[in-house]
Write a structure and sequence with these properties.
The protein is α/β, with parallel strands linked by helices and 112 residues long. The chain contains 4 helices and 3 strands. It is globular.
Length: 112
């Protein structure tokens, strides 16, 4: 079993989807047909955890679609989609924006 961590924010935008997968999975092939057929049929269990997606890279859509196709065709290829980049940023923004009206008010104790 091989586990891979794909940080979508670090994708090389100069590579097409097949070239990216060949480099990412360290495959000796450069031809798209060989890369795909190898990943479809190879019996090595590959688990890829994808983080910080979607990416701003222009080739991200092609890469993510190709990953999904391989996962559908190969019983040995699994994707685990981690947190989305935009969702993480939204959560952080929500934590930073606290409405003063909703903040607990500190009330001085009145001595009786």
């Amino acid at each position: 079993m091989q586990t891979f961590i794909l940080d979508a924010s670090q994708i090389d935008s100069t590579l097409d989807a097949d070239q990216f997968l060949a480099k990412f999975y360290n495959l000796p092939f450069q031809e798209p047909a060989l890369i795909r057929s190898f990943l479809y049929s190879d019996e090595t269990l590959r688990i890829t955890k994808v983080f910080n997606w979607p990416s701003d890279a222009p080739n991200w859509v092609d890469i993510s679609l190709l990953l999904e196709v391989i996962q559908q065709r190969s019983p040995y290829f699994y994707l685990i989609w981690g947190p989305e980049q935009e969702k993480l940023q939204d959560d952080q923004d929500e934590q930073n924006l606290i409405d003063p009206e909703l903040q607990p008010k500190i009330v001085d104790k009145i001595k009786l």
